[in-house]
Amino acid sequence: MLLWILQKITVVMAQAQSFMPTQGTEIAKSIDNLYAFLLVISLVSCVIVIGGMIYFAIKYKRKSENDVTAYITHDTRLEILWSVIPLILFLFVFAWGWVIYHDMRTMPKDALEIHVTGKQWAWAVEYKNGVRSTEVVVPVGRDVKIILTAEDVLHSFYVPSFRIKQDAVPGRYTAVWFRADKLGDFHLFCTEYCGTQHSGMITKLRVLSQEDFDQWLTTESEVSTLPMAQRGAKIFQTRACASCHNVDNPAVKVGPSMYKLFGAENHELLDGSKITADENYLRESILNSQAKIVKGFGPRSAMPAFQGQLSEVEVTALIEYIKGLK
Amino acid sequence: MINGVPVQEHYRDASHQFASAKEGIWLFMATEILMFGGLFVGYLIFHMKYPQMFAEGAQFLDWRLGFVNTLVLIFSSLTMALGIYFCQINQPKKAVWALAITILCGAVFMVIKYFEYTHKFHMGIYPGRMLDLEMLNQHLSSIGKPAIASTNLGMYFGFYFCMSGLHGIHVILGMLMISWCLYRCMRGDFNPNYYTAVEGVGIFWHIIDLVWIFLFPLLYLVG
Amino acid sequence: MSDNHNNHHEEHHIMPLATYYKVAGALFLLTFLTVGFHALREYMGPFSALIAFSIAAVKAFLVMAWFMHLKYDKLSNKIIFGSGFIFLALLFVICIMDIYTRLNVNSVL
Amino acid sequence: MAHAAHGSNYLNAQKGLWSWLTSLDHKRIGILYFISVMTFFLLGGIAALLLRGELFAYNVANSAGEMAGQLLPSADAYNQILTYHGAIMVFMVIIPGIPAILGNIFLPLQIGAKDVAFPKLNLASWYCLMAGATLAMFTMFSTKVDTGWTFYTPYSIKSGTAVTTMVIAAFITGMSSILTGLNFIVTVHKLRCPGMTMWRMPLFVWALYSTAIIQVLATPILAITLLLLAMERTFGVGIFDPKLGGDPVLFQHFFWFYSHPAVYIMILPAMGVISELITTFSKKTIFGYTAIAYSSLGIAAVSFFVWGHHMFVSGQSEFAGVVFSFLTMLVGVPTAIKMFNWVATMYKGSISFASPMLFALGFLFLFAIGGVTGIMLAVIPVDVHFHDTYFVVAHFHYVMVGGTLMAIMGGFYYWFPKMFGKMYSEFGARMSWIFIFIGFNVTFFPQFILGAMGMPRRYFNYIPAYEPLNRISTVGSWMIAVGFLIALYTIINGLINGAKAPKNPWGSKTLEWEADSPPSVHNFDHEPVVTAGPYEYK
Ligand code: HEA
Ligand code: HEA
Ligand code: CUA
Ligand SMILES: [Cu+2]
Predict the structure, then answer these.
(1) Averaged in consecutive runs of 10 residues, what is the pLDDT profile of chain D (538 residues)?
(2) Hey, of A104, A107, A145, A177, which one would you mutate to test binding to chain C, going by the most C CBs within 10 A of its CB?
(3) Which run of H or of E encompasses D81?
(4) For residue D183, which residues of chain B lie inside 8 Å, CB to CB?
(5) Do D458 and A78 touch (CB under 8 A)?
(6) Which chain A residue has the Cα nearest residue D154?
(7) A224, A304, C101, D217: which is deepest, by most CB within 10 A?
(8) Closest Cα to atom 9 of ligand 2
(9) In the sheet where A174-179 sits, what is the strand order?
(10) Which residues are within 8 A (CB) of D31 and not within 5 positions of it... i.e. 6 or more apart?
């Protein structure tokens, strides 16, 4: 019997590890151990309850309509037993969970801080030196602290392989930390429902070696020295314009395509008027999208207003880029 | 009919029916308390968070009007209780008078509320986002007071209008129900053994009073 | 039946008229008191709110006990009505507990 | 009462649609609820099939860069159907489900009463449900709603859809729930027949009583929360809107203050049904009557203290999280007590495998799994991984469908002869059980694994790695649908062609079986007098 249980336990442990995603951090391992323990006690209690039920159901199957049954009303010892044992188990897993949770929530002191902002429907990642990105890139083996907030609605920052998750709440900051153990790319999901493209709000968390990371950071910060249109292209990616606008074909994504937009005459708006898509129009469309809404969209533009979000230089670079989409 | 009480079939006798009805009424009152209470909880939490803003908001409420309204409601509570009392001692005529005065008090309360509301609208004070801060500041400077410092004054008035609005709706509902009691009283439905409706509506009316007793210091006097 | 013995006396308790007037008088008085203290709020500082709400609580008690006849009502009805307040307090206490124990992002616990 | 002519019963005492729509008879109102709730269930179920159909495969962007679905035209359509599925199932199916249908009909019968305390309120509460449902359905034909059933702010404030209408609809169905609860509490307190002491009440009545307490004390907070949300949308009050200085986490506190107790509104009556079924079909007195009765009250009380376990990663404080995790552990204990007592009841019984019992056994099986996964979710670091993934979806379907819905079906087959005076085809009932039970596991067990793998919920589209398990799950949902189709057929066929039911086909001991099948308008010819507990199988 004991052997059988032990065997079961190992099987469950192995199973648990194989269904959970790769363990990208130390914490992930300790959580998985707790999870495996929970699986085991759950399995045992289910075996007792369900097994007992099946056993009794077969053993005491009705033989005839006039079967005589035992008259047992209660047994206080049993009642106490099956209240106290689960209670002890529950309190035990609670305490174990508390210990791990304490580690998860104790922010490391000299962590690399990265600001991540959720907005419909992309993550905006910003490093201390001003580099912006749509992916989270971190060095391996180093404490990283993500400072989260959101621009519009709730989002949630979830990296399954690291077993971390934290809501990004507009109007305040929340934080998570982790120390990646493994190199590679990991999925980063948004797990708080945030509207149409909630399921598209997926990006990568890339773990690089320290050298690669440093190099990445420098190359990214050199973007500012690129030619204008190329810089615009970069911004178009990092500010997630690309999540709503196509650039190489005229199909509508969430918003209208930018392809061959510049210079279009008789560009029709929602109110029926026609304009020419010149620099000033583009500028207004980007900074205050509500002002002029393209025909077929609205009545409210789904596009966030970028007034105050983009610097003058960035807007100009974007326009320069859009101009070149022919 | 047993002793002038229309006892429904599933009840044993009149007092059985009365006790059941009474319990139902109290359960309903507990839900009323919880519902209003949710607003109070929100109010207290944000009052702790933005004491300054709440103080700024409260200055626009005229405590004298609130005070008068408190007196009106307390008086109406008294007349309501008397209405029940007169039913109990089988004096329906007096009960009708008491109920009528109660309705009148409710009406006075609502009229005062109406003036309070319109006065606020006049200054540009609306709930929440609709609050017109510019207009309000203009008004303030015209009477030589400093402009509003908080940016989310709308929240205070959101609470103000939600709480007093929900309360006002209850007052109107209460008045309608008292009118119904009054009509039945005039018709001679009630007697010392049977006045469940008046009793129930009475408790409802006192709940309204109860809520106002807390609303008055909360909204008008927190400055 | 559970409540077989509900005596008539309890069900249709009739209070003397004078009690109503006394209670109403007390309520009016307390209202004036509230306003009176409000006028003195400069001197009382933080206590003024406390006083205002204590007075309100007393008034509420008066209304509940006498106007709503709760004083003479069954225990079960008192419990029912009271539970409304208790669960409200629960909501309040736990929300406040959360809000005031939120740590700032730089906390190392 | 003599005026009930021979053969006259509550079904045929009066005729015509109007006599039904104005009936104050608790049994007729129960039937009204039955028809409407089952209709809503079909709607919600069809929505579920659409969701599962969409998730059958992941989508790839087409050449134009658009992301059209496999089945549904757009992500928006998916989100809307998801919202209707959740809102319909929760507010209109499973919360009114057992109390308003089975409870309405059998609570008075089981305590030997002629009716519920307030028949008019009872009818009013049905009209409230219908009004709320109509309003909710109405939004389907206007701008639809896409917030998910939880209406989290600020999304629900910003969403350009008919959230306000939907919220008011939920408010009205909430009133219906309050009225039912209020009615039941007074009925249990005041209308028990002579000899029926509290400790002789059937456990189903105890369960409904505990449920009613939650309904009365929790629903008002939902009401005010929804009203505030409506105000937020119309006036921008700012209480829940961070842009105006409000606190979206506070909304979640308010919402779950109701919605966690609400999950026990869903399960407690189901547990009551299971207590009835297990004793009847084991032909044996219940093991631990008092323990089960007290645990119902215990669950009702503790359920108010645990709501924050839905908010472990929401940005509530760590301290609050730990407190809630601790309290949540406590609520598992009374549930465990019930489970063990049921199994112990079967010991040395005479166990019949009639279809109601199959559903009861199915309940024990599925609810045990749903419950233990609930405990896993209550452990904070584990929940951090599982929160808002399919693990949670699997958990709550195991408890709501595997638990409550199984009990509804079981209870329905059990009481069908009493409700309609007819027998249904046992074969059909068993077939429906087989399909529902197996289909259910095929649908939702893979979702535990999907959750462990990290698939977030409310996802219109997913990464390729999740596809195989999603396929299995979708196929399972078709099996459930077949099961319910069979059940539907069995019920309708039983209504039309069923043999006449005897007074007490299962040999039960509770009071309702002493009334005729179907009962007369006044339930009992003579007021029953009770001298012993409810399950005296000696
Ligand atoms: C019928 C409804 C129902 C019921 C009864 C339960 C019961 C429980 N639920 Fe569940 N739950 C939901 C419906 C329900 N839940 C819903 C709808 C959601 C999601 C809402 C949403 O976000 O949309 C949810 C979500 C949910 C979460 C949040 C997950 C998340 O979003 O991150 C948590 C976390 O603690 C939780 C916990 C529990 C617990 C501890 C129980 C306990 O009561 C279970 C107790 C039962 C047992 C423990 C089993 C029987 C006992 C034994 C077999 C004995 C031995 C057992 C052991 C030793 C382990 N539930
Ligand atoms: C009582 C509650 C209840 C019930 C019974 C169900 C029943 C089902 N649910 Fe649901 N579900 C919820 C409550 C419930 N659900 C809630 C609260 C959510 C969360 C919503 C949110 O996130 O906001 C959810 C979410 C949810 C999701 C997650 C979606 C997502 O997060 O993206 C999924 C996916 O698989 C799902 C599937 C199913 C299925 C397959 C069934 C099946 O069991 C249904 C079986 C029933 C039928 C199939 C109907 C009977 C059919 C017929 C008789 C024949 C049909 C006829 C034709 C086809 C013409 N549900
Ligand atoms: Cu962002 Cu979901
Ligand atoms: Cu819960």
Answers:
(1) 58 86 92 95 95 88 58 87 94 93 94 92 95 91 87 89 91 95 95 91 95 95 94 89 89 94 95 95 92 93 93 92 94 93 92 94 95 95 95 96 95 94 94 96 94 93 90 95 96 92 89 88 85 83
(2) A107
(3) helix D75-87
(4) 24
(5) no
(6) A153
(7) D217
(8) D48
(9) A132-133, A122-127, A112-119, A143-150, A174-179
(10) D11, D20, D105, D419
Measured from the alpha carbon of residue A53, the closest ligand is 1
Residue A211, classified by CB atoms within 10 Å of its CB into exposed (0-12), middle (13-18) or buried (19+), is: exposed
With the C-alpha atoms ordered D338, D343, D349, D350, is the resulting torsion angle positive or negative? positive
Map D306-351 to HEC letters.
CHHHHCCCCCCCHHHHHHHHHHHHHHHHHHHHHHHHHHHHHCCCCE
Residue D481 CA: nearest ligand 2 atom is 48
CA A302 to mean position of chain CA atoms: 22
Partner A contacted by C106 (CB < 8 A): yes
Residue D198 vs residues A293, D202, D203, D438: alpha-carbon distances, Å: 67, 9, 10, 39
Q: Which residues line ligand 3 (CB under 6 A)?
A: A 118, 121, 155, 190, 192-194, 198, 201
Taking the CA of residue C18 and the nearest CA in chain D, the distance in Å comes to 34
Give yes or no for a contact between D343 and A116, defined as CB atoms under 8 angstroms apart: no
**3 state SS for A183-207:** CEEEEEEECCCCCHHHHHCCEEEEE
Which chains form contacts with chain A, at 3 or more CB pairs under 8 Å?
C, D
Cα–Cα distances in angstroms (integers) from residue C19 to residues C69, D196, D363, in the given order:
11, 40, 58
Contact C107 A102 (CB under 8 A): no
C contacts of B88 (beta carbons < 8 Å): 12, 14
The tens digit of pLDDT for each residue in A216-263 reads 888 877 776 778 888 888 888 878 888 888 888 888 888 888 888 888
Residue in the block written with tokens 């508390």: A98
Task: Judge contact between A125 and A115, C-beta under 8 A.
Answer: yes
Looking at ligand 3, which atom is closest to the CA of residue A193? 2
D310 CA: distance to closest CA in chain A (Å): 12
Q: How many residues does chain B have?
A: 223
**Full-model pTM:** 0.89
